[in-house]
Amino acid sequence: MSSKLIAPSVLAADFANLQRDIEMVNNSKADWFHIDIMDGVFVPNISFGMPVLQTIAKYAKKTIDVHLMIVDPDRYIKTFSDLGSDVLTVHYEACTHLHRTLQAIKAEGMKAGVALNPHTNINVLEDVIKDIDLVCIMSVNPGFGGQSFIENTYDKVKALKELIIRKGASTQIEIDGGVTNKNAKTLVDAGADILVAGSYVFKSDNQIETVKGLKAIANS
Ligand code: DX5
Ligand code: ZN
């Protein structure tokens, strides 16, 4: 079985010491940088935009996984590719022509991801799953870090894993929101491949050790 990945969410970093926190991720056992872009319309919060991502990309030495919580994401696919995104995830709820959006992301050389809000059933991806490189299951309502994990996520991950197998797809499953050492193992056992963790990593006393511990649990 391939190694399970840890993706610290930079939303929880100390922006006054952004370079330091990026270097922490570079030097840790983390696999990806998870970058949350919020527009204040799709979600009730605004995070940061292109200049900040450009700075992150300048120092980041690992895969850059961008999670767009914005309406009409098609407008910015090329921009995010030019800024150095390796994975670009759009929300199912924000895309009228999801299939077209996925092809446009791949045409820019990025992996194409689709995020599902907690209320969105995985079945909506049935006809497009083979075109998706990554499904991001939101285990909190998007918009803020530090929220508590929604327990229904476990069943959702299992159902998605079944769909992926049934369709012969090679889609990876990412979990985003409220991930800690308490739920990591259960999520991986249910079928998760990538665990995003913001507050759990950045608000801990020893971030390097926290990442190491989470990586070990996810691969135990
Ligand atoms: C929420 C974001 C998450 C968030 C996770 O809208 O998509 O990536 O940063 O933060 P924690 O791990 O603190 O729930
Ligand atoms: Zn996210």
**CATH C-level class:** Alpha Beta
Number of strands: 8
Question: What structural class do the secondary elements suggest?
Answer: alpha/beta
Distance between termini?
A: 11 Å
**Tally of separate domains:** 1
Number of helices: 8
**Residues in β-strands, percent:** 15-25%
Level-2 CATH architecture: Alpha-Beta Barrel
| Spans where pLDDT lies below 50 across 5 or more residues | none
Level of helix content?
Answer: 25-40%
Question: CATH superfamily, called what?
Answer: Aldolase class I
CATH topology: TIM Barrel
What features would you highlight for this structure?
globular, TIM Barrel, 220 residues, alpha/beta, 20% strand, single chain, binds zinc ion
Task: Provide an overview of this structure.
By secondary structure, this protein is of the alpha/beta class. The chain has a single domain, classed as Alpha-Beta Barrel (TIM Barrel), CATH 3.20.20.70. About 35% of the residues lie in helices and about 20% in strands. The protein contains eight helices and eight strands; from the N terminus they run E-H-E-H-E-H-E-H-E-E-H-E-H-E-H-H. The protein has an eight-stranded parallel beta sheet. Helix 4 links the parallel strand 4 and strand 5. The protein is globular. The model has no long low-confidence stretch (mean pLDDT about 100). It binds D-xylitol-5-phosphate (DX5) and zinc ion (ZN). The site of D-xylitol-5-phosphate has 22 residues, from strand 2, strand 8 and helix 7.
